[in-house]
């Protein structure tokens, strides 16, 4: 793929959009560490029920063959995955720079 083939991207947490190209990293920080990130699991009696978090990074391409490139991480909300969160932030920053240059705004 070429950088010019990238149309945009979005980040989803459990299927809900929390960030997309052009909105900046502030949204992903608040969403990833906000309400959903603060939940440590529901306590039922003496048993703790885990809650799975699925974090997806989707890159929309101009290709008819592969229109969406998808990366996915999953982890239990009680044990956040800092590596996945760091990768999402790094990838978003990189793609924002690429998209800005390809559109002539950088």
Write up this protein.
There is one protein chain. With 106 residues, the protein is α+β, with helices and mostly antiparallel strands. The chain is built from 3 helices and 6 strands, in the order ββααββββα. The strands form 2 sheets. It has a 4-stranded antiparallel sheet. Strands 3-4 form a two-stranded antiparallel sheet. Helix 1 packs antiparallel against helix 3 (82-102). The longest helix has 21 residues, at 82-102. Mean pLDDT is 76; it is low at 23-46.
State the share of residues found in helices, binned by percent: 25-40%
From the spread of the alpha carbons, the general shape counts as elongated
Tally of alpha and pi helices: 3
Q: Give the strand content.
A: 35-45%
Q: How many β-strand runs?
A: 6
Provide the gyration radius in Å. 16 Å
Q: What structural category do the secondary elements indicate?
A: alpha+beta
Low-confidence stretches: 23-46
Sequence of secondary-structure elements: EEHHEEEEH
Largest sheet: 4 strands, antiparallel
- In round numbers, the mean pLDDT is 76
In which order are the strands of the major sheet placed? 2-1-5-6
Distance separating the two termini: 21 Å
